[in-house]
Design a protein that fits this description.
- With 376 residues, the chain is of the alpha/beta class.
- The protein has two domains: 127 residues, Response regulator (Rossmann fold, 3-Layer(aba) Sandwich); 234 residues, Hypothetical protein af1432 (Orthogonal Bundle).
- It has a five-stranded parallel sheet with strand order 2-1-3-4-5, sandwiched between helices.
- Helix 4 links the parallel strand 3 and strand 4.
- Helix 7 packs across helix 10 and helix 10 packs across helix 16.
- The radius of gyration is 22 Å and the shape is elongated.
- The protein starts with 5 loop residues before the first helix and ends in a 10-residue tail after the last helix.
- Bound molecules: fe (ii) ion (FE2) (2 copies).
């Protein structure tokens, strides 16, 4: 079995920003700094001289400093490169400069410096996601197919849930089969690294949890293909109960009120009902959906189960779910680097997550011993 590519998993994507500090982008810059490896360049020439320019996910530039012609600068980041950062211009919405730059074919998008910072961040996220799609395609037809199929399966599920229809197991099972049979761990790790920058949150989260459950399952010795299918299926389906929760609650950036949290806590119960009503799902898939928010000390939800009363697959799902939720970028929060995510998970104490599975997951992500960890 191929080992996960640890170095790839721990590296944050790089973003180069060349700007005059006078631009109103401070919140946006703070966001980029929190989520990406940020390089602040002092001139456009400096950007073009950067030997790792092609590996950056985005180059953001503003009107100033203007040490070389904007059109020439954009064209120098050649659209024909196989891997190419997104070229993003930032400036006030109606400025003649931004209008001119927007017309250049080599500019991938613009950020309005006079728009609220949340909007700037959202625009940036969409543009980087487009590159994420391209990067997935670069990994080869398997990765592109898994992404497309997962998005299709989850969209179909959403439509069925909305219509109150059963969710046929066949589609999820076919997806699980194709992932288990056709991908090695290295490809899954590469995909997870890229997906972190994608903004399609539901698909990313379900697929991310599914791939992590499969990888962790393989890592702790799940050898049978049938069991590996179940792990992946369980990951894809673990949060389907959320499809019944109003999006205003799901996307709430701050703390939920007691009433809202009560609604949120119901999603594992909803998932169990939806899976049972649909028929054909293995009990393990149902347990993962039922138990992924349970805590070892009984403080979790919805059932408040303790220790061994929580299914093994539920405990495995919980570890992967927390790790994915922390490391994924959301519209309301930055992503957390893997090392920091593990720090948080460890600080949750032994009463929360399964300590052995957490250890094994860290071992899987880091490769081996703590002193060999790769700095982020
Ligand atoms: Fe959940
Ligand atoms: Fe989840």
């Amino acid at each position: 079995m191929t080992k996960p590519d640890v170095a790839q998993m721990d590296c944050r994507s790089r973003v180069i920003v060349v700007t005059d500090v006078a631009y109103r982008l401070s919140d946006f810059l703070a966001y980029v700094e929190n989520n990406y490896a940020l390089t602040l360049a002092s001139s456009r020439q400096e950007v073009l001289a950067d030997s790792d320019l092609r590996s950056a996910v985005a180059v953001v530039f503003t009107e100033q400093p203007n040490d070389m012609d904007a059109r020439r600068f954009c064209e120098a980041i050649d659209p024909r490169w196989k891997e190419r950062p997104k070229v993003i211009a930032a400036g006030p919405r109606k400025s003649p400069w931004l209008t001119f730059v927007k017309g250049q074919t080599s500019v991938d998008g613009v950020i309005h410096a006079d728009a609220p910072s949340e909007q700037q961040i959202r625009t940036f996220g969409v543009l980087v996601s487009l590159r994420a799609e391209a990067a997935l395609a670069e990994l080869g037809p398997r990765a592109a197919t898994i992404w497309k199929e997962s998005a299709k399966v989850l969209k179909t599920i959403e439509v069925l849930v909305e219509a109150g229809q059963p969710i046929p197991r066949a589609a999820v099972h076919t997806l699980a089969e194709s992932v288990v049979e056709g991908t090695d761990d290295a490809l899954l790790c590469d995909m997870m690294r890229i997906l972190r920058d994608h903004h399609a949150e539901t698909v990313v989260h379900s697929l991310d949890v599914a791939m992590n459950m499969l990888l962790l399952g393989r890592h702790v010795g799940v050898r049978s293909k049938a069991d590996q299918h179940l792990l992946f299926e369980a990951g894809i389906m673990h949060d389907i109960g959320k499809m019944e929760i109003p999006s205003a609650i799901l996307r709430m950036p701050g703390r939920l009120t007691a009433d809202e949290f009560a609604v949120m806590r119901e999603h594992p119960v909803s998932a169990v009902r939806m899976l049972r009503d649909s028929g054909g799902y293995d009990e393990h898939v149902i347990w993962a959906a039922a138990h992924h928010h349970e805590k070892i000390d009984g403080s979790g939800y919805p059932y408040g189960l303790e220790g061994a009363r929580i299914s093994e697959i539920g405990r495995l799902a919980a570890v992967c779910d927390v790790f994915c939720a922390l490391t994924e970028r959301r519209s309301y929060k930055p992503s957390t680097p893997p090392e920091k995510a593990f720090e948080i998970m460890q600080s949750m104490g032994p009463g929360q997550l399964d300590a052995t599975l957490l250890e094994r997951m860290m071992e899987m992500i880091y490769g081996s011993l703590p002193q060999q960890r790769i700095a982020i």
